[in-house]
Amino acid sequence: MALVTLCPGCSTTFRVNAAQLQAHGGDVRCGCCQRIFNGFATLITVNESAIEYTSQIQLYTFSTTEIEAENQVIPESSDNEVETRVISELKQETTETTEITQTAEPIEASALLFGDEKPDRRWYVKWGSVNALLALLLVGQIAYGYRTELTMIAPEIRPRLERLCEFLWCIVPYPQEVSLIGIESSELQKNPAQHPGVATMYATIHNYALFPQAWPALQLSLLDAREELIASRIFTAQDYLQEADKSLQFIQPQQEIEIRLDFDSDQVDALGYRLLLLYP
Question: Is 111 among the domain residues?
Fold first, then answer.
């Protein structure tokens, strides 16, 4: 902010300071029309940017005759009142200048970063494209790492993930939640007359999940009369599935399937068994 006074004769504005006004009790002479007037009478404060023209006021030692000739009335105020008013105006100017400087600091920092010119639309498009590409890569990594879990949440997206894996040379494994698959029934049969030394295990497997699951492995344990373990073996789906079902890659949600398992029992005299499903 700046101190400005107005000449009542020619309406010219002048920028003044405290020293000029205090020197002669506020009486100054216009540098344009030479009129003597009291600077305090028309003193105002304005922004620096609003001053279009400024000029130095010509100081003059005034006599009583000259003042009366100009019909200028000097305001009655003591030197202390004048000094207090000017000092107050100068403090206000200093405070407002400091606030403007602080506000301008981020603009200067921005100017150092981008130069004198602001980023154009191409800059925003470029970085927007880079961010979009990074976002797609992130989504791709998540989809790759959790592709099996995604098929459990939304089974219908499996075909899309499988097509994507064709380009990445990967597969989408089927879920293996053993707690959601179980044995509905089982029976161990022997027929010495027709097949001596061969025992047959019949069982029904049920998938309780709402999504397809991989075929589990089957662990068969043979027990004696005291229910102690005699022999144990793990069979894969290709061992226990019927010939018509061996081409199936998974068990459908809520599906039941009958299995049959033939094995040599000639060397063991088993009186009991234990059948478990597991994912190795």
Answer: no
Q: Cα 200 vs. chain centroid, distance in angstroms?
A: 61
Helix intervals (H) in 47-78 = 64-69
What's the CA gap between 213 and 236, in Å, rounded? 14
Residue 207 has pLDDT above 60, yes or no: yes
pLDDT tens digits, 41-99 = 877 777 766 665 444 445 454 555 554 555 444 444 445 554 556 556 655 655 554 44
If we measure between CA atoms, which residue out of 229, 236, 242 comes closest to residue 268?
Answer: 229
Specify if 163 maps to a domain.
yes
CA atoms within 13 A on the CB side of 48: 6
| 33-42 per-position pLDDT tens digit | 888 888 788 7
The residue among 35, 28, 14, 25 whose CA lies nearest residue 86 is: 25
Q: What is the pLDDT of residue 29?
A: 82
pTM: 0.47
52 beta partners:
none
Q: Are 189 and 200 in contact (CB under 8 A)?
A: yes
- Backbone phi and psi for residue 155, each to the nearest 5 degrees, phi listed first: -60, -25
What CATH number is attached to the domain comprising 259? Answer: 2.70.50.60
Residue 3 CB contacts under 8 Å (≥ 6 apart), including other chains: 15, 16, 17, 18, 43, 44, 45, 86, 89, 90, 93
The domain tally of the chain equals: 3
Residue 81 maps to a domain: yes
Q: Where are the alpha helices (DSSP H) in 40-78?
A: 64-69
Kindly state the tokens that stand for 266.
């000639």
114 or 219, higher pLDDT: 219
Within-domain flag for 219: yes
Query: What is the residue range of 155's domain?
Result: 122-168
Q: Helix or strand or coil: residue 221?
A: strand
Cα(126)–Cα(146) distance, integer angstroms: 31
